[in-house]
Amino acid sequence: MSEEGFLPGTILAGRYQVRRELGRGGMGVVYLCRDLVIDERVAVKLLDRPGAAARPEDAWWFQEEARALAGLSHPALVKARDFGALSNGTPYLVMDAVPGRSLHEWLYLARLEDPLPWTIIWSVIDQVLGALAHAHARGVIHGDLKPSNVLVDLQHGGEPPLVHVLDLGLAWLIQDRIDHRLDGSRESEPTVRWGAGTPGWMAPEQIRFAAPHVGPPTDLYALGCILYALLAGGEVYDGTNDELLQQHRSSPIPDLPLPPEVPSDVAKFAKRLLAKRPWHRFDFAGDARRVWKRFEPRSDVNVTATPLPLALLTTGRLPPSRKELLTPELIEPPDDDPPPSVTTTGLLALRPSPFVARTGERARLMEVVAEMVDAPKAMHRFVLLAGEAGVGKSRLAEWLCEEVHERALMVPLRARYRRIAAPLDGVLGAVTQHYRLERAEREIVEKVLMNLWEVPPEDEVGKTWVAATAEWIKPSPPGSEAVGPTGKRFRLDRPELRWLIIRKTLERIGRDRPVLLWLDDLHYASSTTFEGLLTLHRDAPNLGLLVVATVRSEAVECDPVAAKRLEGALAAYGGERLDVAPLNPAQTHALLRETLPLDDAAAEAATARSKGNPLFALQLLHAWAGGGHLQLRAGKYFVPKASMAVQAATTADLWEERLAALPEELRTGARAAAALGGDIRREILRALLASLDIAADRAIAAMQRAQILLAVGDRLRWPHALLQEHLLSQLFLEPDAARVFRAAADALGAHPFASSRRILRHRVVSLLRAGDTDEAAALMHAHVAAHWQSSRDIAATLRDLAVL
């Protein structure tokens, strides 16, 4: 590409013919193009940094924008169509070409001519709130909302304007919604945009680099700035960039002059959006939209009508009406072929799996939600989603979380359980993700909780609860005497104390609305988890709690202990079980056509071979795409007859491919690493490998290159728990397995937290696997004796002894 860009008529990526340049910025240029395959107008954005050398991280940021857009589908959000790289390696992103002028242009015209009418302003803000609610519910925070990123196309005949929110290039992605079982890819960490944004439209928490506080209220602050500009004709503050940052961080909010036709309460609404502290704004975009609906211009309503109560405009929450709680219409896909999706294989690995069918299950879940939200007092409900692996239980639960978040009905928390537990499994992981504390140090955890819970320095009781919760989220190292901002030290040495902290934390989270607690693969949970659920049901009558658990029916049938625990929880809560059945052929066909525009033969083949299992159908589609078997013809993808028999790679096949990338002499090292658990310290793995006469540094480097292990600071982790599980199962079959497990126990003995219960149990299990029963028993008995002197925790002691 020349410095002047591509000339009209140039064909990009073999299908996008350039018409003209639409605009360019510091990171890219956008062209209006014609998609020659389907004969439609599209916008093609190319990564381009004029006058600067390309950096590897630029392509990654560009891909993150594509990932953000690919997971969204809302009328007021521009849609992604394709993603890839040109022949010279330049990344490109194809989106819908949408009409209209930016709000920046409309504001300029308003200063020269007439300001925008109140009816237009109201509709623009309402549509943007709807777009934000949709994005936030799917873990996407725009992060750079400003007038130039909102297109408005005025309509004739009194119709509302068409509004589109653009440019997610600086979006924060706080949730990974991709099903990594489809292609074996690793989970993505939350995308943090340190210091990114535009002065004049950035929220104070962005300016302060307060990452845990960046969330839905961050975008609402920017929308408050836009609303102020639309009504006042100018920005909230004036000055240089440095002055703007300082004023948005700490200056008082100026009064908002309102045109005569605007309801007076709009000024209070705008002031709440512009609150300096994010916890003083609305928690959800849906909350703000519910209040904004009260200002809708109608010919039968006078602007001097009865105002809303002040508390609802400044601090409170307007509850949903009964009409709003009615179950949305859920239409079953038609029997005939649905229209194919307008997407490409370039987005296949970036898009969450489409959600089709499940009409009855969705309706029942929303009935339960409506019952709880409309109830005069808090209530508990338990719904168990059961079905075979890959049938779509988790996708159904995920849909419910998105629905209640987008409509601001409940606070969704996502907890998962795995055969091999990871540090952030269970309710701990759900709460940590909710507060966005995954990467936070202990001091930051306490600061964030004191802010959100508004605990003043003189509140000793409040600070004690903060210290206790911080100890649960980020435990102090053994022997540490350090204290955080609370000035308190707290020791969680009894399970009942831990569940008291969990209850108090959930009550804080659910202070304004019920909590939806999604427990994924609950059959893997320990007895302690089930005891905790019963404790919550007994001791938290003021907490609105909907527990939605997913279980694999075949796993429960093979585990009578798990089955008994699940039956006990259902009975205690008076819960219900929903069996999630395989899809019928029409539904599977709709799923495939929603994923990619397949031709009939390919869709029918995948439908027949998957036998109604959505995971199997999508795995086959990914196998065709990943193997280069999909060919585009007349806007549809078809599979040559010779490729129809391609088998979808199972996850085991994918892991074996990665293992095969290692030299033969290093593969034993990968299996040995699996004996160290899910969170591996580099020095511990190095010691283990050295004791097995394996070149440690060479093996670790090779495992990282093959993406068998990923580096996270001074630690190493598995890209997927199933990979560790696969290697561990292989290790059991090795003739020298006992030697490896014994070496793992010895290596863990040098762990900095070797005396902690978690590491010691791991050592004991490794010794048992090695057949060293006496040594394992002696180690555990010494641990029990030492801890009994300090805590005398009977339940913990019994669990320790149960390991033997």
From TrEMBL:
Record Pfam families: AAA_16 (PF13191), Pkinase (PF00069)
Protein name listed in UniProt: Protein kinase domain-containing protein
SUPFAM superfamilies linked: P-loop containing nucleoside triphosphate hydrolases, Protein kinase-like (PK-like)
GO molecular function: ATP binding; protein serine/threonine kinase activity
Annotated residues for binding of ATP: K45
Database matches in Gene3D superfamilies: Phosphorylase Kinase, domain 1, Transferase(Phosphotransferase) domain 1
Keywords, sorted A to Z: ATP-binding, Kinase, Nucleotide-binding, Transferase
Organism: Sorangium cellulosum (Polyangium cellulosum)
InterPro entries referenced in this protein's UniProt entry, alphabetically: AAA_16, Kinase-like_dom_sf, P-loop_NTPase, Prot_kinase_dom, Protein_kinase_ATP_BS, Ser/Thr_kinase_AS
rRNA-binding keyword on record: no
